[in-house]
Specification:
Blueprint lengths: L1 E8 L9 E4 L9 E11 L1 H7 L2 E10 L4 E8 L11 E4 L12 E5 L3 E3 L6 H5 L2 H14 L12 E5 L4 H13 L3 E5 L3 H10 L3 E3 L5 H7 L5 E6 L3 H11 E9 L10 H4 L4 E4 L4 H4 L6 H15 L7 E5 L4 H12 L6 E5 L2
Parallel strand pairs: 9-10, 9-12, 10-11, 12-13, 13-14, 15-16
Antiparallel strand pairs: 1-2, 1-4, 3-5, 3-7, 3-16, 5-6, 6-8
Helix pairs in contact: 3-4, 3-10
């Protein structure tokens, strides 16, 4: 089967950073299914894993943690899928990735693809959808029914992949007052189009901008960019008994002391936790992907695909990695077809 892989961790400008290769098609057993990959998406995690480092892989390593495709084989323990089903998922960072014609994945972290979306449109949603859903409804504990007193959320980095889904979920499902950060006119427009009530600039003083808009504090904060850089501002503007969640690792320890007098909380979100540790509730990811599919079918959520490349090969994947590496992507970049 065709695949795109690496053996050395090189700058993306190097043609050997990602290479076209041939690999044997894998077999499945247990809870696994075999999927014929028809579309993939590139995320910041792909770029971080591929980033230059002094390391060599003894065998080609396939990256990729977003996919949409068709089930072609199922393991003996699989009951929720059969051959011919169209699926989408974000995979498992501890296993080979989705940048290959055929891919093996645990069926418990897989969802039914939204039928109203193309394979490419669907491939934009799994990783960011899972991350946004878990961050909002599980880590921050926001009720998903929308029946609560008006509360506010600040989403730092609203125009990226996760932010693009989080804005929709926070506004359409949780019915929160959504403030998203965006620093360019095109990103401001994108955030407002997705459902943000207003935008502020994350390159300027967050507290001053929020206060000027009538928000001296906010109930929730979802940080999708530069946790350490925004930490002082977040601990200042979070409401007493509020909650902060971040998906971005910090290069330095975070000072929790400012949260103590507020009885405010901080929690991390890492969407690979369930598959990495084989948690008892790992099937929740498959369930939430099915819920996202239903929201798409009811026009509550929209795909966040903004750039589409074809076919899936090393040249186009290098282009996609370069786009994501720049750090100013709006929505998602997707590749489809072999």
């Amino acid at each position: 089967m065709k695949a795109v892989a690496l053996t050395h961790y090189l700058p993306i400008s190097n043609p050997d950073s990602l290479m076209d290769i041939e690999l044997p098609a894998p077999a499945v057993s247990g809870h696994d299914i075999l999927v014929r990959i028809e579309a993939i998406s590139v995320n910041p995690v792909d770029v971080k894993v591929r980033a230059p480092k002094d390391k060599t892989e003894p065998r080609p390593r396939v990256l990729g943690w977003d996919a949409a495709g068709t089930v072609v084989a199922v393991g003996e323990d699989v009951t929720q899928f059969q051959t011919g089903d169209e699926v989408y998922y974000a995979g498992d960072i501890t296993r080979p990735g989705t940048n290959s014609e055929y891919h093996v994945v645990d069926a418990r972290i897989v969802g039914k693809k939204p039928q109203s979306l193309s394979m490419a449109e669907a491939a934009a949603l799994p990783l960011t959808g899972i991350t946004a859903w878990e961050a909002l409804f599980e880590r921050l504990g926001i009720p998903a029914d929308g029946f609560q007193s008006p509360k506010s959320i600040l989403i730092i980095g609203g125009a990226g992949g996760v932010g693009s889904v989080a804005i929709q979920l926070a506004s359409q499902i949780a019915r929160l007052q959504v403030i998203a950060t965006a620093s360019r006119e095109e990103t401001k427009h994108w955030c407002l189009e997705l459902g943000a009530d207003l935008t502020i600039n994350h390159r300027l003083n967050l507290a001053e901008q929020l206060a000027a808009q009538g928000y001296p504090t906010v109930d929730y904060i979802l940080c999708l960019n530069d946790t350490a850089g925004h930490w002082a501002a977040m601990t200042h503007i979070i409401k007493p008994q509020g909650m902060i969640c971040s998906i971005v690792e910090s290069p330095e320890p975070l000072d929790m002391e400012p949260l103590k007098s507020k009885s405010a909380g901080f929690v991390w979100e890492f969407m690979f936790t369930r598959s990495m540790y084989q948690t008892e509730d790992m099937a929740e990811q498959g369930k939430l992907l099915n819920q996202i599919s239903q929201l798409v079918e009811h026009d509550t959520l929209q795909t966040t695909m903004r750039k589409h490349l074809t076919p899936i090969n090393a040249d186009n994947l290098r282009k996609a990695h370069a786009l994501v590496e720049q750090g100013n992507m709006i929505g998602k970049v997707v590749l489809s077809g072999w």
